[in-house]
């Protein structure tokens, strides 16, 4: 592509800017009106200038928002600071997706070597072709044969590539294999890639060996396989220091504000500890010699589960729940007796309204059953001839068929050959892929559905409860990973607020991407606790009693409990990832919830401010608008 007709490029190709180092940077590409849309509102769009520049022989990318006006809100200013890119080495970019829709704006999505993604950059004046043409002059870029929107960007001699090739992204080159053949080929599908042996990626590392051992350690020997690809996002060995600082950067003024918030929070921690820590509490500490005993914060002790008599006391004569907040508080602090879960979970998941009557709920169940059967018939009626011409259906069905046979098979409800419940699990997931065709099916969804079906023992009601849960958690499975990116970023801010020494340690050891918590967040601790424990934990999370993002405070609580060991042993990213995975089955669930409750209470509004609106598992922003 001849760039001589591009006025922006021609004007900037010989320009120079001072980026603040000893050598003046030479700008090779510059484009105005490159815009991010942090929320759905037009007023929140942030326009800026995207540049490529050469400095010290390396290519860097920057995006700087335009100067803010007096009318800019604090929330928009936060996004401006959050997404400013001052000096991103292009060598730290894993791949870029480029979209040039027939109608609408051109935009790109930049995904880093860590797997984290920036929000889409929209080019209001065009220019994506010129951007890629300029990059090709300075770095190696290869386009996917299977996915024309995907461009792999990196130096293939980079030692990180051996680890990155294990990500096995759809349509991304298997680098180690390609190099051995002196050519570049692309994996046809995730399923083919994940069944290759370790030799395909140049031999197993210590982390891969550990992952193999972990599968045999758990109760169900096949349960980890359903997330094999997604969990490999956690296997990236390092996250470039400069990239990390640009992702999590706040300006100097916000750092001062952050220090004020931390001082306020630490004052509250001292007060709270004086109120909560007693002789009885300290006895619990002896259960874990590895925990951080000195700086642990305690919440209220766990109560007993909601009983049948207590449940009936919450209902009026027509079956309405008279005090939903009191009910959620009771569940938060004690859980639900198993015999009641079938009823209570429908409210916690949003399938039933708290003020609905028993008659209304029975009518709703009948109507929803008919609707479910209608949706299910859409894929049930697809003939073999149609299926041959319906690639998306075949792919989703194949992925679901493989996942359901290795989901919680050690649980009696799903164990054994020819188990009817496994078939129902598959049918619900296939039906959901037609109900929400845009999201479809992603690995990990079966892990969320399995406990729901186990409790409901009804296909239609399980489907609608699962669909309600996906309204909150669907962002975990978005293709651009923005949902996971937002949660890990919020987790970083919470640790910085609630445990600055630990956050500083992670910063010094290139662990600020928090990818060692990826599995915790993605499937909400499903791998860390037993089946019975996860039902208790999830109903606590679903109450959204203290926070709709209580799972993030739970992450902080667990990290805080083991801070002394993490810092004392000088864990780097690889060691930390192994250590976190080895905590599976070792975490005291009551202590963890108790600690998280105290941290959430102490953080207060400062903690809530760390979490951007729309961050999973909150309802999407558009649903908030519908409710209003």
UniProtKB/TrEMBL annotation:
Q: Membrane-spanning regions, if any?
A: 104-124
- Give the record's GO CC terms: cytoplasm
Database matches in SUPFAM superfamilies: Ypt/Rab-GAP domain of gyp1p
Give the GO molecular function terms: GTPase activator activity
The answer to whether UniProt assigns keyword Manganese to this entry is: no
Keyword field: Acetylation, Cytoplasm, GTPase activation, Membrane, Phosphoprotein, Transmembrane, Transmembrane helix
Compartments it resides in: Cytoplasm
- Superkingdom as given in the UniProt entry: Eukaryota
> Does the keyword Cell cycle belong to this entry?
no
Tell me the ranges covered by the Rab-GAP TBC domain, including all copies: 335-545
- Function noted in UniProt: Acts as a GTPase activating protein for RAB7A. Does not act on RAB4, RAB5 or RAB6.
Question: Subunit composition?
Answer: Interacts with non-phosphorylated form of RAB8A; phosphorylation of RAB8A at 'Thr-72' disrupts this interaction. Interacts with ARMC12.
PANTHER family per the UniProt record, alphabetical: SMALL G PROTEIN SIGNALING MODULATOR 2-RELATED (PTHR22957:SF502), TBC1 DOMAIN FAMILY MEMBER GTPASE-ACTIVATING PROTEIN (PTHR22957)
| Protein name (record) | TBC1 domain family member 15
The beginning of the lineage is: Eukaryota, Viridiplantae, Streptophyta, Embryophyta, Tracheophyta
């Amino acid at each position: 592509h001849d760039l001589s007709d591009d006025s922006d490029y021609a004007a900037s190709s010989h320009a120079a800017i001072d980026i603040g180092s000893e050598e003046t940077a030479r700008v090779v590409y510059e484009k105005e009106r490159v815009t991010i849309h942090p929320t759905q509102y037009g007023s929140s769009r942030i326009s800026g200038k995207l540049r490529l520049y050469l400095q010290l022989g390396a290519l860097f990318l920057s995006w700087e928002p335009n100067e803010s006006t007096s009318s800019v809100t604090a929330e928009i200013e936060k996004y401006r600071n959050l997404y400013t890119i001052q000096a991103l080495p292009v060598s730290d970019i894993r791949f870029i997706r480029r979209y040039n829709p027939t109608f609408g704006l051109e935009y790109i999505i930049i995904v880093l070597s860590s797997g984290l993604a920036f929000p889409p950059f929209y080019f209001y004046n065009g220019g994506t072709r010129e951007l890629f043409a300029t990059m090709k002059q300075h770095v190696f870029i290869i386009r996917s044969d299977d996915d024309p929107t995907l461009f792999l960007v990196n130096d293939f001699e980079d030692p990180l590539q051996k680890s990155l090739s294990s990500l096995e992204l759809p349509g991304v080159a298997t680098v180690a294999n390609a190099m051995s053949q002196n050519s570049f080929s692309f994996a046809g599908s995730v399923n083919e890639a994940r069944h290759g042996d370790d030799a395909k990626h140049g031999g197993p590392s210590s982390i891969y060996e550990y992952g193999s051992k972990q599968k045999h350690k758990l109760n169900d020997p096949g349960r980890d396989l359903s997330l094999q690809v997604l969990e490999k996002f956690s296997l990236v060995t390092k996250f470039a220091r400069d990239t990390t600082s640009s992702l999590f950067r706040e300006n100097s003024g916000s750092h001062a504000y952050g220090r004020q918030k931390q001082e306020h929070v630490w004052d509250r921690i001292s007060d709270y500890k004086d109120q909560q820590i007693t002789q009885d509490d300290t006895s619990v500490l002896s259960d874990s010699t590895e925990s951080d005993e000195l700086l642990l914060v305690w919440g209220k002790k766990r109560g007993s589960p909601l009983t049948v008599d207590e449940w009936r006391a919450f209902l009026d004569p027509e079956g309405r729940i008279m005090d939903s907040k009191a009910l959620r508080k009771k569940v938060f602090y004690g859980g639900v007796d198993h015999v009641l879960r079938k009823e209570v979970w429908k409210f916690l998941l949003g399938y039933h309204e708290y003020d609905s009557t028993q008659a209304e709920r029975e009518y709703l169940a009948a109507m929803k059953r008919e609707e479910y059967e209608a949706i299910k018939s859409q894929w049930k009626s697809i003939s073999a001839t149609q299926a041959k011409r319906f690639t998306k259906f075949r792919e989703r069905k194949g992925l679901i068929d493989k996942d359901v046979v290795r989901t919680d098979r050690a649980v009696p409800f799903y164990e054994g050959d020819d188990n009817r419940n496994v078939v129902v699990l598959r049918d619900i997931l296939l039906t959901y892929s037609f109900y929400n065709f845009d999201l479809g099916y992603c690995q990990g969804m079966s892990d969320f559905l399995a406990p729901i079906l186990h409790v409901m023992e009804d296909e239609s009601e399980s489907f609608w409860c699962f669909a309600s849960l996906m309204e909150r958690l669907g962002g975990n499975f978005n293709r651009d990973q923005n949902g996971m990116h937002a949660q890990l970023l919020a987790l970083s801010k919470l640790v910085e607020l609630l445990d600055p020494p630990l956050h500083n340690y992670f910063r010094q050891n290139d662990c600020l991407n928090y990818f060692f918590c990826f599995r915790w967040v993605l499937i909400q601790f499903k791998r860390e606790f037993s089946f019975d424990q996860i039902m208790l934990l999830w109903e606590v999370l679903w109450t959204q009693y203290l926070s709709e993002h209580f799972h993030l405070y739970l992450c902080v609580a667990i990290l805080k409990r083991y801070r002394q060991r993490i810092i004392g042993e000088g864990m780097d990213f690889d060691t930390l990832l192994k250590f976190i995975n080895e905590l599976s089955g070792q975490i005291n669930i009551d202590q963890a919830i108790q600690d998280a409750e105290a941290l959430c209470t102490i953080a207060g509004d400062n903690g809530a401010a760390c979490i951007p609106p729309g961050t999973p598992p909150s309802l999407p922003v558009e649903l908030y608008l519908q409710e209003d």
